[in-house]
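Quick one, T. Sequence first:
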Amino acid sequence: MVDASKIECVWRGRAMLGEGPLWCPGLGAMGWLVFVDILRARLHAYDLASGDTHGWALEEACCWLAPREDGDGFIAGLRSRLVHLRLSESGPNIVAEWATPGDEPAGNCFNDAKVDPQGRLWFGSMDDDAERPSGSLYRLDRHGPVRVDTGYRVANGPAISPDGATLYHSDTPLGVIYAFDLSPDGELSNKREHVRFNATQGFPDGMTCDVEGGLWVAHWDGGRVSRFRPDGGLDETLTLPASRVTSCTFGGPRLDQLFITSAAVERDEEGLAGGLFRVKPCVSGVMPAAYRMSTEYH
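Structure tokens:
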């Protein structure tokens, strides 16, 4: 069990909408935990060695970063497009446009992503007002972006099981996390309801898997992160001093630290809202997979 008293707020910068945490072991002396503030269009990096957090302004709000297999930076999901982005201590640099779906409905934006063990990037879109079911789930592989599921108000939190056989994806306003069977060639099947949040739990946001197949889920308006077993049963809950918990990922040299992002939007009364938190659970995570790009699509 996680000792809630061991939760540490490592950055108190009050992100309006902190999201997209990603462990980057190749940056800095001991690695950086990179995350974004979507509403302020900023990119942040927590330096594990120094404890400092760097921050940079972006020309457009960014929702997530995914590492590239060749080590040349990231594929970044901006609100309206996908780009090739490089990051160093001097800041981010957008190098080129990438393969972006061209038929998203007006009023939509992109939201949240994850790479599977085969190097395919899975990302979602959402209605900017979180009201219309106009969002989709996409797969980006060497053939370009493909829409694989539709009807989401807020497509959120993709996560892939350690064996690569299950993809988890949620529709946040509905309070539902879905599970799909994921074939070796990237096809999804057998969509089913994996977890449904009740009225006291808030709404499912970003999530990640550990080495045992447990699914760690951030609760928007629920003030917690929960671990669900592979069968969907609730295993444990970690309460945080911020109600709008947005996402989580494992990091650190041993991948034994859970980093948690949060949001300060409409939470002026919460002193640690928008902070970046860290705790050591009794299980380790999985190294983030890297996108296997093709020069045909950029």
